[in-house]
TrEMBL record:
Protein task: Catalyzes the decarboxylation of orotidine 5'-monophosphate (OMP) to uridine 5'-monophosphate (UMP).
Keyword Chloroplast among UniProt keywords: no
Pathways involved: Pyrimidine metabolism; UMP biosynthesis via de novo pathway; UMP from orotate: step 2/2
Family annotation (SMART domains): OMPdecase
Description of how the protein assembles with itself and partners: Homodimer.
Official protein name in the record: Orotidine 5'-phosphate decarboxylase
GO BP annotations listed: 'de novo' pyrimidine nucleobase biosynthetic process; 'de novo' UMP biosynthetic process
């Protein structure tokens, strides 16, 4: 069992909000409770990249969830600029060539590159519809092996797969798990979800929680409750 102070940096609050003004308000409300934030497409395309720079310049950890995938040179140039932004974590899809290009571009920096394995909104039928020959679990493990070989900083996967991924990547890589829902909460559009305590027991190093916190009437209390669940693991 851990203390709440110990797990605080392991909780990443997803700022899945439509405007920077609303994101700024959420950060203010969570001051003293949360210390790590995720910025994805929704906020990034509403001025969130500048907001990400502001947060990072003030010492706040920022996980930039861009899920990069492009030709090697384009990925590399993007990563070089993201390093300059002072981000803590960055996602890209776990395609071997892209991962290798990103790792080379980030060399010597503190940026933790995360390989996105299979989106937690996808189940086996979704995988078949997308043309994959693997079920989600098999593809997650295959991509975890490739990310380890590419020397990525971590993996993004469902917490239900975190234990198996941890066995592949060992203790040195981050295992970041979205799709976290406190017991009794609505699953939303997530199909492979786990509670905070179970995620920690399964080997997750960081939990990404958005709607259960930013959608709560009392955001600070919601984050505190999740920290307490994490600390019980």
């Amino acid at each position: 069992m851990s203390s709440i102070d110990t797990v605080r940096d392991q909780l990443i609050v997803g700022l899945d909000l439509p405007t920077v003004k609303e994101a700024e308000r959420a950060v203010r409300e969570l001051e003293g409770t949360a210390s790590f934030y995720k910025i994805g497409y929704q906020l990034a395309f509403a001025g969130g990249l500048d907001f990400a720079r502001e947060l990072a310049s003030g010492g706040t950890k920022v996980f930039l969830d861009m899920k990069l995938l492009d030709i090697d040179n384009t990925v590399a140039k993007g990563v070089e600029n993201i390093v300059k932004m002072g981000m803590t974590m960055l996602t890209l899809h776990a395609y071997p060539k892209s991962m290798k290009a990103a790792v080379e571009a980030a060399k010597g920096s503190d940026l933790c590159l995360l390989a996105v394995t299979v989106l937690t909104s996808m189940d086996e039928k979704d995988m078949i519809d997308a043309g994959y020959e693997y079920d989600p679990h098999t593809l997650v493990l295959r991509r975890a092996e490739q990310a380890l070989q590419a020397k990525m900083g971590g993996i993004v996967c469902s917490a239900s797969e975190a234990s198996a991924v941890r066995r592949i990547v060992g203790p040195g890589m981050a295992v970041v798990t979205p799709g976290i829902r406190p017991a009794g909460s609505d699953h939303g559009d997530q199909k492979r979800v786990v509670t905070p305590a179970d995620a920690m027991r399964n080997g997750s190093s960081h939990l990404v929680v958005a709607r259960p916190i930013v959608g709560a009437v009392d955001r600070k209390a919601a984050a505190q409750a999740i920290l307490e669940e994490m600390a019980k693991a």
